[in-house]
Specification:
- By secondary structure, the protein is of the alpha/beta class.
- It has one domain: Rossmann fold (3-Layer(aba) Sandwich), CATH 3.40.50.
- It contains 5 helices and 5 strands.
- It has a 5-stranded parallel sheet with strand order 3-2-1-4-5, with helices on both faces.
- Strand 1, helix 1 and strand 2 form a beta-alpha-beta unit.
- Helix 3 packs across helix 5.
- It is globular.
- It is found in: Cytoplasm.
- InterPro entries: Rossmann-like_a/b/a_fold, Universal_stress_UspA, UspA.
- This is Universal stress protein.
- One of its GO terms (cellular component) is cytoplasm.
């Protein structure tokens, strides 16, 4: 049987992320795995726009997004710490969520990614895309997709 030594858990603000965290907690306990929990702060669509530096609302938005992501990662980290599971957190900027997840997986030599999927279908899936689907198709390591 394959044993997973380092599990990567990408999270966002959605409830499905927390379902993935719960699955990672359970698996990490069973396998004595290390865990890295990560978030990607979305690519800034205004980079390069002349008025960007004079648009405080836009700057405030991205600063708040980063603050929220850091708080979320710290809260999740404590769940693993309470259970005695070795855990790190990473916050990635300037890339798409898929790129960030694959990049961190390579960087930490993860051997499993556990992530949530919203389970969108039809036109929603076509228009919105799916980070889980992209990671599943691009990742060279196993991906466990949690759906609720």
């Amino acid at each position: 049987m394959t044993t997973y030594q380092h599990i990567l858990v990408p999270v966002d603000e959605s409830p499905i992320s927390y379902a993935a965290v719960e699955n990672a907690l359970t698996l990490a306990k069973l396998l004595n795995s290390q865990v890295t929990v990560m978030s990607v702060v979305a690519i800034d669509p205004f980079v390069g726009v002349d008025f960007y530096k004079v648009a405080p609302a836009i700057t405030d938005y991205f600063m708040q997004a980063e603050k929220n992501a850091k708080e979320r990662l710290e809260d999740i980290k404590q769940s693993f710490v309470r259970d005695g599971i070795p855990v790190d957190v990473k916050l990635v900027h300037g890339v798409s969520p898929t790129e960030g997840i694959i990049q961190v997986a390579n960087e930490i030599s993860a051997d499993l990614i556990i992530m949530g999927s919203h389970g969108r279908t039809g036109i929603q899936k076509m228009m919105l895309g799916s980070v889980a689907k992209n990671v599943l198709t691009q990742s060279p390591i196993p991906v466990l997709v949690v759906k609720i």
